[in-house]
Amino acid sequence: MKNSVFIIIIFILCVGFLGSLPPRSLLPENIRYAVLAGQSVKVELAITKEAQIRGLSGRSGLPEGEGMLFIFDTPSKKIFWMKDMNFAIDMIWITEGKKVVYIEKNARPESYPGTYFGPDTRVKYVLEVPAGFADKYNLEPGNPVVFTD
């Protein structure tokens, strides 16, 4: 009887300890979706410097419901351009706290080389989606973003 009580006490303590742990942190390389404005966007990741420089350049398009998520090591000011792009996109700058801070709607390939896009704000993420996404789903600065696997 004494052993049973001891085992029950240990079990309760373990459950209490595990319940007090912070939620599992999603590693950047495990992100598969960005959820914003009530929409789930399947994302291709641009984590390496090479992938970030290449971005969506040279592609013929981006399917509806898909995007490219740029993940930077540390929050900083990020400026984008449309070099070698073949289609228009919406670009969404997202803080480390996962809030939309700036949206460039309908960035067009012909804007290159004269135009650079980006806010005067530090961000950790930039999401590129097909042009029209922000208007279609009423995306606004301040909207939260959730990343999932």
Summary of the model, kept short:
With 149 residues, the chain is an alpha+beta fold. It has helices at residues 2-19, 49-54, 133-136; strands at 33-36, 39-46, 66-77, 89-94, 100-107, 122-130, 145-148.
SSE layout and pairing:
Blueprint: H1 2-19, E1 33-36, E2 39-46, H2 49-54, E3 66-77, E4 89-94, E5 100-107, E6 122-130, H3 133-136, E7 145-148
Give your account of this protein's structure.
- The protein is an alpha+beta fold and about 150 residues long.
- It has one domain: Sandwich (Jelly Rolls), CATH 2.60.120.
- The protein is about 20% helix and about 35% strand.
- A seven-stranded mixed beta sheet has the order 5-4-6-3-2-1-7.
- The termini are far apart.
- Residues about 5-25 have low confidence and may be disordered.
Helix and strand run: HEEHEEEEHE
Q: Main sheet: which strands, in order across?
A: 5-4-6-3-2-1-7
User: How many distinct domains?
Assistant: 1
- What distance separates the N and C termini? 45 Å
- Please give the count of helices: 3
Please state the overall shape, judged from the principal axes of the Cα atoms: globular
CATH fold-level topology: Jelly Rolls
What percent of residues are in strands?
Answer: 25-35%
Give me the CATH architecture, please. Answer: Sandwich
Radius of gyration: 21 Å
> What percent of residues adopt helix (DSSP H or I)?
10-25%
